[in-house]
């Protein structure tokens, strides 16, 4: 079917706020909501997500020069940022709606996850840098991709360590447990991406081959982790997407928010609207 519709058609429009991890949830959930309403989701050519990924127009997506389709959109907001809110979906698709703000639940896009995987291919200049990063480590150990299991480790600390809102960073013990789990895989090679290199070098277990990535843009680091076989995530939406895009075995830190905090109330009671099914909580 044609992907161009008449100007009188209605659309779903995004609310892009925050950084890459937030934008990926906003994109995927918006796309999923559009698909469930059988209309198209509108992305602007200049949107960050379009500069990083090779987005292609399809039955549920338009890449628009001006986003004029969104000029008169009605806003439809969530009840909690990191939980599924069925009320977001309770609207008639005969007018254009802007959805937001964070929509950080896989339940908004589970029905179209294979389409979203197809859309979220990194642009060549990003993927090439990621590949050369991993290939450099393989060369160092005189091995090939077929002979190792590459495990990405995301360590996010920096902006979260002393934050009053309730963020809890993944602990040294968490990383020890996760590394121990993957040490059971054949010939593991751990590749660490972090915003706190000093802490990571001091605390990530050195029992196996461990390499640290530094100096890349956030999108190249994400492409590195997405290219790994499996991922040890820490906290935050950025690591969530690195894990999801890898499509391998993923571990997560079970307590990303302090009980009773503002952040905790953004999640469902068991966190399961947020963490992906079959991921391993440690």
Automatic annotation (TrEMBL):
GO CC terms: Golgi cisterna membrane
E.C. number: 2.4.1.-
GO molecular function, one term: galactoside 2-alpha-L-fucosyltransferase activity
GO biological process: carbohydrate metabolic process
Subcellular location: Golgi apparatus, Golgi stack membrane
Listed InterPro entries: Glyco_trans_11 (IPR002516)
Transmembrane is among the record's keywords: yes
Family label: Belongs to the glycosyltransferase 11 family.
Protein's UniProt name: L-Fucosyltransferase
Organism (species): Magallana gigas (Pacific oyster)
């Amino acid at each position: 079917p044609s992907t161009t519709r008449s100007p009188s058609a209605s659309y779903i429009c995004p609310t892009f706020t925050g950084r890459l991890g937030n934008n990926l949830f906003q994109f995927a959930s918006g796309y999923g909501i559009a698909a469930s309403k059988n209309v198209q989701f509108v992305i602007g050519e200049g949107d960050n997500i379009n500069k990083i990924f090779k987005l292609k127009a399809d039955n549920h997506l338009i890449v628009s020069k001006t986003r004029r389709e969104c000029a008169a959109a009605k806003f439809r907001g969530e009840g909690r940022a990191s939980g599924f809110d069925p009320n977001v979906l309770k609207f008639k698709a005969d007018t254009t709606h802007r959805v937001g703000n964070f929509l950080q639940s896989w339940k908004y896009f589970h029905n179209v996850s294979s389409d979203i995987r197809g859309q979220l291919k990194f642009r060549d200049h990003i993927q090439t840098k990621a590949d050369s990063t991993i290939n450099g480590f393989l060369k160092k150990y005189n091995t090939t991709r077929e002979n190792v299991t590459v495990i990405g480790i995301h360590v996010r600390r920096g902006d979260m360590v002393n934050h009053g809102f309730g963020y809890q960073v993944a602990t040294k013990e968490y990383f020890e447990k996760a590394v121990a789990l993957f040490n059971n895989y054949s010939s593991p090679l751990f590749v660490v991406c972090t915003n706190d290199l000093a802490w990571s070098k001091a605390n990530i277990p050195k029992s196996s081959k461990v390499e640290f990535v530094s100096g890349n843009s956030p999108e190249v680091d994400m492409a590195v982790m997405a290219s790994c076989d499996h991922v040890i995530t820490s906290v935050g939406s950025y690591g969530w997407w690195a894990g999801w895009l890898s499509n391998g075995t993923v571990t997560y830190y079970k307590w990303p928010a302090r009980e009773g905090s503002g952040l905790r109330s953004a999640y469902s009671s068991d966190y399961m609207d947020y963490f992906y099914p079959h991921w391993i909580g440690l």
